[in-house]
User: Fold this.
Amino acid sequence: MIIGVPKEIKSDESRVGLTPAGASALINSGHTVNIEKGAGFSSGFNDNDYSSIGCEIIDSANELFSTSEMIIKVKEPIEEEYKLIKQNHLIFTFFHFASSEKLTKAMINSGAVCLAYETVEKNGKLPLLIPMSEVAGRMATQQGAKFLEKPQDGFGILLGGVPGVQPANVMILGGGISGTEAAKMAAGLGANVTIFDNNLERLRELENIMPANVTPIYSNQLNIEKEVKRSHLIIGSVLIPGSKAPKLITESMLSDMIPGTVLVDIAIDQGGCFESSKPTTHKNPIFIKKGIIHYAVTNMPGAVPNTSTTALTNATLSYAIQLANNGWKKACKIDNSLAKGLNIINGSVVYKEVANAFNLNYKKVSTFLN
Assistant:
């Protein structure tokens, strides 16, 4: 199979879909790997790193898409890439369709097969989302601590305090991968941390693994409304695979918060779990509403591309090899976890949550795998 890795062109996106080590593994499996010129540079990989192990360096995105069968990306295609995607393509990337009707309809119209990293599911877990969730969770605390500083218009509190001075109160919504990593970072810095989830089994696990300055709390409206009033940093990390994130912090709650509180919305790729959130970028990461700082960068791990690209390739590579070796249809028949990653096939939506998000017709994946 001919595999194409384009340069990411979304604003402030520095990652690349495949490391040289990942490309080498695909070449050793008998496939051709095309890399767009300069695609890996911002992640710390130059063109020679790829060409020296047998990759073809392609001068333009147009040529790369037109000569490749499977496209391995990081972020969802943006509008100027829509025209490059054709019916013969398998696109393997993060899509987060439920957050964008425009993207969803563009991929339907392209006729391509769209296999989304974020919905590949194995044993109840999302193996291709985990590494970026880990990065985003750790970054959420790091960024939140920075924007709590007074020069950034934050409340002016040190996350861990100092002897004789109370530390900051950190509230985390969602006890999954991102929320857990955010809690570890905040706890390690000495903050008082509360982490909310509505899964009692998960809350018991968190109680056992977290240090004493982390308190797991059952997530309901009254508990959330109470905690927002005393929190300095609120991190939203609620995920419903393939669906829009629930709005757990309403806009009216902003008036109850301490002025200078920081909201970090990790769930912004799925529409955000704060009602007042809107997507931001690394160049302009925050906006202030009712005295509350909102950080809602849609590609948080893109700020640390060397770490993120390596972690992502570690997770995606075995699946990419399966797809290349067998073709998407046979690979998805063999491995049901890959089949769950299929969102759109040749103009049909095959992931129910995406169809429901925009009231589109839904077809079962099995229709296309028989």
